[in-house]
Amino acid sequence: MSxxxxxxxxxxxxxxxxxxxxxxxxxxxxxxxLERLKDEKILLxxxxxxxxxxxxDDQVRAVIEVKISPEREGGFDRLxxxxxxxxxxxxCYLMSGGYDLLVIVAGKNLRTVASFVxxxxxxxxxVLSTATHFLLRAYKEQRHLLxxxxxxxxxxxxxx
Length: 160
Known about the structure:
The chain is an alpha+beta fold.
């Protein structure tokens, strides 16, 4: 793995001159490496890590297990890409085990996520079944602990 990529994955958002200082590299070399990572579609973007409990804009997230029927020519790819293109879908992974796809979606509330699943996702030809799990509380996001020890109550925060 590239040292520049490793630094990006482990650290905070740094400017190229700061990365060069940390890595003991020339700033031009860091810039060149960043461009290479972007050109080769290794580095796709910058994403901040936020604590969902601290964000005022409430949003419901769900994990959906999807069983699909593979196609003769394309296997799982065509249907997986079709599902991935929905705006509600944050992530989509091909899995081994009891289901084929793990789909992470977000919506304004439970009803919008449920409507997406029942009206748009489950009705796609080739989708055999879905199982939706709503995320109630985040404890860790992208290697960052979101809850300090002793601050977690026994009950998840659920609004009536």
